[in-house]
């Protein structure tokens, strides 16, 4: 009973946060596919180098 009251009050008292400008929809529009592909290749190369060093 007490827990239910606390949970209801906590939910009421927590202010809603505005949506971030970096929502997935905006991220898709902000980056062109080439820059995304380049970033993926870069991360894969770094990962491969890391794997090679730790064999």
| Shape call | elongated
Residue-averaged pLDDT? 72
Q: What is the count of structural domains?
A: 1
- First-last Cα distance: 56 Å
Low-confidence stretches: none
Structure description:
It is a single chain. The chain is mainly alpha-helical. It has one domain. Helix content is about 75%, strand content about 0%. The chain has helices at about 1-15, 25-30, 35-55. The relative contact order is 0.06.
Write the layout of secondary structure elements.
Elements: H1 2-13, H2 24-30, H3 33-53
Supply database-style keywords.
55 residues, 73% helix
Structure summary:
The protein is built from three helices and no strands. With 55 residues, it is mainly α.
């Amino acid at each position: 009973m007490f827990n239910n009251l606390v949970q209801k009050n906590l939910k009421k008292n927590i202010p809603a946060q505005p949506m971030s400008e970096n929502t997935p929809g905006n991220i898709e529009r902000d980056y062109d596919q080439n820059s995304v592909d380049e970033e993926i290749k870069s991360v894969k190369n770094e990962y491969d180098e890391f794997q090679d060093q730790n064999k």
